[in-house]
Amino acid sequence: MNILLCTSRMGIGGAETHIYTMAEQFQKLGHRVCVASTGGKYAALLEQSGIEHVTLPLDSRAPAEILRSCFGLISLCERFGADIVHAHGRIPAFICGLCERFSDFPVFVTTAHGLYDSREPLRSLSEWGAATVAVSREVESYLKNVYGLRHGEVTFIPNGVEIPDENSYAETSEQGSVISASARMDYDNLDAFLLLISVFEALRGTGNYPLLRLKLAGSGNCFYRIKAETDRLNFRFPGSAEMCGSVTDIHEFLRGSTVFVGQSRSALEAMAMGIPTVLFNNVGCAGVLNSTNGEYLFGRNYIPDICSDSHRRMSDSLVSLLESAQKRREVSDFSYEFVKKHNNLVKIAESTLDVYRETLDRIKSNVMLCGYFGAGNTGDEMALKIVSEKIKNAAPAAELSVITRNKKLTPHGLCGIGRTDFKAIGRALSKSRVLVLCGGSLIQNFTSTRSLLYYSKICHKARKAGCRVMIWGGGIGPLSGFDGEELARNLLSLLSAAGLRDVHSLDEARRLGCKNSYLSADSVAAADTDIVAFPDTGVFTVCPRELKKSADRDRLFTVLSSVIPKICREKQLRVRFVPLAPEDSEICQKLADVCHGDAFNPDTPENTAKLIAESSFCLAVRLHAAVLAFSANVPFAAISYDPKVRAFAEELSAPCIELKELTESALLSAVELLSIDKCDETLKSELKIRSEKDTEAFRIIYDYNNLKDIEK
């Protein structure tokens, strides 16, 4: 899965640490992760871990900066190929909501790390995405009762930390006892730090703890106010207090601590290391974690309730721990086991991934197919039918939609969407997991650059909407000009997988930098068919093509109209002309008039295939005429106007003449080389095996996994 995490900043703090550790854990579980924020110390650590960080002003409420963030996120989702976006914080969630409302954007979820202000207009501007994660039971209830989120829209998932294999708590008594604390040094926590310093000073003042030291970590707008108090402590008790500033390696900071004082994420980190912890904040003290208060404090994300005697409670808790090694060991063992059971990072990450999957299953389960469909082209329509049936078997719950020129030609079971109805296409993509390009060589500018631009636009819309893109048994080329290659390279960079039907297309894809490309097969050629050849029918079939250039049209018509009557006389055969696309009907009729043959106009792809199967041999100008002949074991000679035709003929060792080299003698020689022997069954089996790679790649993509070693 490609996961984009968005947050206001990646500085030092509980939420930031949570995002950092979750990003690392997602990566360890095999997912791709990207984080977007305004930056901070953890941003550099992310990149050291191989996780991309993108700087965007996601902490700003200024309209210009919000607009900049929107465009930045939309562009990032397209480039990164985000399957889901997870917003941490009110402003990032608001920006994601704007992106979703006004553009193609992936499904996004949110995490509430605390109790958000519910006053207007903040309440109305709050966005909660398709699902919301609450870090505590208190936050979960608050969202339901105050913000009106319904049951099922909110999931309680606590903070997670890495748990050592065993409790390795060790004291450093020879250096004296150490009380440590870590939190943001801002106005919300100022009273807590001042009270802790006051309790520490009182303990040192008794003379019972002459080596007791205090270590504080954190930064913020109250740092120097707190430092002034520790400087006063050091004046009275030299060397007793240490201000460590911002720390990113919390484990190194905590190592050697006798007792930790704090709440929420920082307390969780300490308890995971087995350090006896007094749960305390600026409004109350809950003492140490035990069997009586454990479940309650776990539901509150280890945040104490308000109490009126915090000073006494903290002092009593610290004294009981400092004076009894047995008490410290009991608290250490209980805290470690409790956190190991409730806050294991691996389990928390997997629970979060379950929310992603459940949300995506609910919103994005469909598949969209895109190709040259609805134009009456036999090969494309047969490919559509074959590929759609394979997708239905691979993803039974998915609804299939297809972009088409003519909705009336849409096969049963598929939802047809007009080729130029971009609003409908966008709506369908927002509910689709995968966009499948199939049916032919779509990445080419031989017919026109407009078609390449069109398919590129659809792929870009898909990626912006969090929809993966793959090619299923397609081809690449011909590509001409720098613009054509650049368009193709850009489109190929958007693909999660590319199944190419011939070696030439595969080489082109890799030359253009396409990842996860592999040799597949034409879906029609690899399909099982119940159509068999009837070689003694006394007819052969010609499948011409209406060509774009007048010189090519004239050459093809002249040679065919001259050679076909000779073949009919010498071999005592009748000729039939079969169009594979509506635009081919005119040339079929003209050739039939000149050669005294029969021009057919089959109404279904199946009837076209049957006409070819009833032939002694076939002269194929269209690729799928050769494919259908191969499928029915009918010998064929190909006239290549496109590299894909030659590639297919060469793979079968069938006669093939380049259009520019087409002459009467060349065509007659090709016909003489035709064999009535059955087609190589080994090759058919190989094509089926290659075609199954497309089905497997689709399953991997549809299940939101990443392709690994697919090229092998």
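Above is the first protein from milestone M3; the second protein from the same milestone is given next.
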Amino acid sequence: MTKKNLLTLLGLALFLFTACEKDLLLEQDLNGVQDQTSSSIIAGNKSGENNGVSYAVKDLSVNPNVVLLNAGNVKIESSKQELSGGSLRVSGVSDELAASFTTSNILYVKSDNYAGLKKIVSVSKTGEGSYDIETVRAQLGEAFDGGSIDVSVDLYKASLAKKKELALRAGYDASHEILNLQDRYDFGNGLTYNPATNIKLLYSLQLKFSKTQILPTEFSNTFEVQLAINPQVNFVGSYNNIKEYELSQYIPQEVLDFIKEQEFEFQIPINTLGIDTLPAVLKVKDIKIPLVIEANISNESAFAYSLNGSFKVGYTVKITGVKPKVTSIYENKIVAVANPSTSETYGELLTDSKIIITPDISILDDAYSVGGDLTLGNKTTTYGHVAIPGKSPVFGSKGVNTTSLTAIVDLILLKVPVEVINTEKVLWNVGTIVKSVIYSDLRYTLGSYKDNTNILSWGINRAYDTQFTLDYKYPIIGKKIPSELIISYDVYEDNGSTKIVSIKDQVIQPTDITATSFKFRQDIPFRGKTTIKIFPPSITTTYQTKAYIKNIVIKDRNDYVYEGIYNTAKGVVEKSWEIKK
């Protein structure tokens, strides 16, 4: 995903966490009805929509033993912090209400700035009508005996009331910059980028309850993203570089600070047994927007493509007793409307863009809370007019959408770590991508040795610190070896047929990199042979003077792979090399 995509997804993150009215009080009249068979209170089947928030309460039954404490029947003297910590001080309590203050009873406590479910641990009478009550957080299932609660928030619609506040507070055109990113950014050295992105987001939450257990029987969270992405990358002249950017630096800091300090609140209407709403809070703890662009471009080049559609990512957790079963939710309808042009890229361009958002969702003072990371991104690989030896110049391009979601759901009694999804979807794959590199003319210098470095692999063998030098050549002008390579090879003793050790996918760091060569170091073992004499008694070890390296494979993390080493003098690819002391 180019920088544009990243900023596009930035728009998503910014929507997600700044978008809604702070107090969405739904005015529908939900009249509780007594369920004659269960003695629970049924809120009924009600639904509605207000300022982008849609809700549905389906057969929701409330435990009739839940005790409501609010300004209508007591004076709550504890602060919000004390209430969160479990300390509840009340006065003006009637004798009838005081009779319900028994251990293990469930309280629904609501003051001006606090709402939570509490289970009574102990009660102390401190005066006439005054009590100190120690509590712990209660489970949602202890308040609800059955039914379900569904809430969906269209953050585009819900954000409208926030835009003026954001613009006034930050001095920032929220409508343009957040919802429709069309600015061109200059990264220097002739590289410019325009995200040209528009994003909308829908967040959904569902909770289901059963009278037989105190945890929700099922809950789900989903994010649905509707987007249009049209990034443009432009180069003036040649460019050979790898650059990493944190794109959030291009968003004014006052806007990011404002986003992170806001709590997006919505109210779930109940209006039964005095419980009017359940407050839910959604906020962002962090936003990161990393972008990597690797370009080895000659001439003036441009890169653009177009995506639109939607995708949905989330999870459903079903709980039997305290055993959770997680099912991922993933639907990807994003399609490529326009693929990169074959005529506008001269060389190699690799982009990897992500947006990583860390959300925090809670209901009723963390009786139900969710944290984790949502990562969205695009990777593109494009080769234009690349001259492969012996072949005509080729063009090829591939675009991949990446999605991952991890979550930690905290239900007080149960914490559920969930790796929801980690997947890729190919958006386009056109032309021919030939990742060609040639490694040639291996040279080496042996350094000092160390004995018994790896007893399990080498036994009594002696390993020599060996510096290798290799030449290399890409068909792309100006492209250099990356900072990491992955190497595999086998080492044989001096007969060339007895294997000493196999090295598989070992990471090496090239040094002294030039346009045509580089160096790297490896420990190469030489076989040791021990001779034992009885008379006169002696033990001696001698070491072979040569070893053989075979089956060498070198690759990098962008899938450039070469097997063997090319010998330019002989014009052949060699598979075995003799290493002498």
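Note on the second protein: The longest strand covers residues 368-386.
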